[in-house]
Amino acid sequence: MNARRLLAPLAGLALMFLSSHAFAQGGEIGLLSVVNHGDTQEYSVKLQVLILMTLLGMLPTLVLMMTCFTRFIIVLSLLRQAMGLQQSPPNRILIGIALALTMLVMRPIGINIYDHAVVPFENDQITLSEALATGTKPLKRFMLAQTDKKAMAQIMTIANVKGDPAEQDLTIVVPAYVLSELKTAFQIGFMIYIPFLVIDLIVASVLMAMGMMMLSPLIVSLPFKLMLFVLIDGWSLTVGTLTASIRGLGLG
Length: 252
Hints:
Layout: H1 2-13, E1 34-37, E2 40-43, H2 45-66, H3 69-82, H4 91-122, H5 128-146, H6 149-159, H7 170-209, H8 217-231, H9 234-244
Antiparallel strand pairs: 1-2
């Protein structure tokens, strides 16, 4: 049930990128038909199945672009490089840690989307369009809380649109959010690099003073980096810093 709460909203939110006007031209096709119910329109079951099957292949990309996974994986990769470790922890472990943290941080938003959009839609209380509009609001609010104003202004300039950023659709919000996540990740990575860089400089200076220039400073400094990381409980500090850097989880 927990996995369903997290995955179902992510799959449904991607439908905001698809417009029914794309199928308006040409003759009527049974698979792409739209059923009329009085003054409202609903997608046919076949069309819903087609869209959902297509979204299964897009789900990994959506997780990367519309959640805080990008920030987490970049910071963890920079941490590994700062410590001078090449393949430890392995890439799969880093991705797993980033995914676990992403699910933890995005859990309130996933529950909000599931309770207010997915459940009413499954109970036939709202239409698919209404479910998409309702489910997009908390995720969009979350992304806007992380988005830098300069990044949003740049994307709006590129797209040649004006108005309130909160009123823009996901085609504008998502690129600005990704740029902001990259900037934030590099800022955190810079702060992580500093103490390990100091250790490298001290070790290199000591080795040069001792005339041991043929010995690689990276090899000598690695044990000191590991000892420092363990003594300060580095993993807890890193996870705490990453989670504390996320804003906009108070959905109300």
